[in-house]
Automatic annotation (TrEMBL):
Its EC number is 2.7.11.-. This is HPr family phosphocarrier protein. GO terms for biological process: phosphoenolpyruvate-dependent sugar phosphotransferase system. It comes from the Bacteria. It is found in: Cytoplasm. Residues 1-84 form the HPr domain. The keyword Cytoplasm applies. One of its GO terms (molecular function) is transferase activity. The gene is ptsH_3. Pfam families: PTS-HPr.
Length: 84
């Protein structure tokens, strides 16, 4: 299992449809990907979960990935959320 804490950038300005795009990034990987903030844990592959989670600028998020491609998944999720 790999974990990383990040601060979300302004994803709504950097992406046309940030919620759908974030789910698409997560779905490219076989690993389970969980996003956690303020005692809320959601599956990053769930569009309803991401909509409820609503990652926004300045939010501290823990990304947790577990599986064969967890390192790649962690990097891709971080790049999306910090708008690299």
């Amino acid at each position: 299992m790999s974990k990383k804490e990040i601060i979300v950038s302004n994803v709504s300005e950097e992406h046309n449809n940030p919620i759908a795009e974030l789910v698409q990034v997560a779905c490219r990987f076989d690993s389970e990907i969980i996003l956690e903030s303020d005692n809320r844990r959601i599956n990053a592959k769930s569009i309803m979960g991401i909509m409820a989670f609503n990652p926004s600028k300045g939010m501290t998020v823990n990304i947790e990935a577990n599986g064969e491609d967890e390192q790649e998944a962690l990097v891709a999720m971080e790049k999306f959320l910090v708008c690299e």
